[in-house]
Design a protein that fits this description.
Keywords: Glycosidase, Hydrolase. It is an enzyme of class 3 (hydrolase). This is Alpha-galactosidase. It comes from Planococcus faecalis. This protein has 736 residues and is of the alpha+beta class. Helix 6 packs parallel to helix 7 and helix 9 packs parallel to helix 10. The longest helix is centred in the last third of the chain and has 23 residues. It starts with a strand and ends with a strand. The relative contact order is 0.09.
Length: 736
Amino acid sequence: MPILYNDSTREFHLQTEKTSYIIKILENNQLGQLYYGKKLRHRESFQRLFHVEATPNTACVNEGDLVFSLDLVKQEYPAYGTTDFRSPAYQLLQEDGSRITNFVYQDHQIFSGKKKLMGLPATYAESEDEATTLEVSLYDEVIDVEIRLSYTVFEKLNAITRSAQFINQGQAAVNLTMALSASIDLPDADFEMVQLSGSWARERHIKSRKLVPGIQSIASTRGTSSAQQNPFLALKRPSTTEHQGEVYGVSLVYSGNFLAQVEVDHYNVTRLMTGINPFDFNWLLENGDSFQTPEVVMVYSAEGLNDMSQTFHRLYRTRLARGHWRDRERPVLINNWEATYFDFDEQKIFELAQSSKALGVELFVLDDGWFGKRDDDTTSLGDWFEDKRKLPSGITQLAKDITDLGMEFGLWFEPEMVSKVSELYKTHPDWVIHVSNRQMSHGRNQLVLDFSRQDVVDYIYNLMAEVLRDAPISYVKWDMNRYMTEVGSLELPANRQREVAHRYILGVYSLYERLTTKFPHVLFESCAGGGSRFDPGLLHYAPQGWTSDDTDAVERLKIQYGTSLVYPLSSMGAHVSAVPNHQVGRKTSLETRANVAYFGAFGYELDVTMMTDAEKEEVKTQIAFYKENRSLIQQGQFYRITSPFAEDGNITSWMVVSDDQAEAIIGYYQVLSQPNPGLMRIFFKGLNPEFEYAIDGIDETFYGDELMSAGLQVNRYRINEHPADFSSAVYKVTRV
């Protein structure tokens, strides 16, 4: 049984195949935390894991008792103000101005399966035997409010999810000023904090720092999960590497403002917590109202960062992403954006599609510029009807013409935005997020629609649904190109203005839910100026995302390597683009561009009609290789081998291995060529040591233990016939 309850000691033991998570009802009936880590055998009592002793200069709970203090106890969902002086997980402001609460254990239930979170994306179980859930009810009798803590154990996937729901059963309203999703207290602070940080065109770079006393955190206040920080945080031991050592990872299934925080107290206890950012947040709970926090996924590994990542990959690929495209091979696509930008017509688009089809491309995507009077980025967002100047036959006919070639057709939308120069803004200037009598800032010449309003979401849904209903469209690229400013809604009353940012994200989720339900055959790819909203929340609706606007092969090594810390290859849109690269101006070979882009949802973003015959033949070969191996790439086990974030960072290598270990593909990349470099080897991972393997292009065969322990000598089997900067090789490995 994945969840066990010791009735006499009031302890809960949550178990996956490799981990244990143990919590306890304390003597004051609040919840305490005993252990999280490598799996322990179950005992009738874990009391030996709980110890507290009298300590000077602190506050204690019970009169006359100088021992029991919440300042000294590891807690499960801590509150502020009743002897714990560390950061709380939640806070409720009451009508009398008090922020003091006392939520105590009321009851619990354990059941098979997993409930849905109302209005929020979350992991799921396809059958009841895949997951087991514990719900613990906490109750404050003074304010008549309940908190339901939910824990789901995916035993075979080695993951535990958590969330909290607040229910106001009292007559008086309360204000929820903080509502994080989870808190974990760890007994020491000998950790390094690992985060994914960056900016536009350099998203999700791996950053690491040693914990120190006090608070260290990452957060977003931009209205999205952001390119600057990703809603993921890991704590690893200083000696932990990709393939050995302890690591705790937490990932928030949410796309808006978030906080992930680590606090080290005066006894070197570490408190890790994450959830909706309390900055500029408040939620009014009137009688009968409830508030659901987003879900947190917790993963512990004793086998290094890569093992943690593989757990996230399996869970997110198979039990977070969903729908028609979850397990299907993703089509090889071409996007016209870098080929034409806004400057195209029907003939140009059709010629691109024809030429792409001849090379083996399966899906043509028409990007920005097809609607309204959109000749640049200053107009027409919100006017989701075709521009007959460019497309006189209309989107439906163009889509039919391209599908008649034997290709699929996809279309770009930016549904959450509006241009001031548009029919929509002219009709509904009140439909944008803004504050009366204040200037409206812009980003990319556009404003943010108020998705906290149901009428706005309904209007956009009807426009998009009409296009998707009339035309044979099988793919949608959903973009979002600016952050929120002057956050306010003209529809909400004053006491609910701090709800706007979260209500906006709920509106985005509801639009995704309606569209994916109505058009289940459509493959949605999320995008936000590249990777500014690449998070688990959107992965629930869009099984792949545009990893970054930066398509330079060298920069993509860091971006894709960092992204893989949490997200599976099947979720990463990765394209071959033109050179000089449009973001950094670098020239890399067509071979290297493809060798990087293979490890994701593969495609092209360039003008194939301008290619030489030799380049076209090379593209044909690339597409054939990807089609032959995309099931392995998209569904295999991914291993990071050599990091571009290492001190030198000149070499990157990674590989993907089939579940049966019969096939593998390894990528090896060298940024700058080096004179007389000495012995260079790749140490493979994940192979069966007993299997004999052949490597394409190499006459010899190798046993798995040789490739993993002795490695492959790159100097002998050169990555390029003539060494050069930005060189690479991809090796296909097959069991003999």
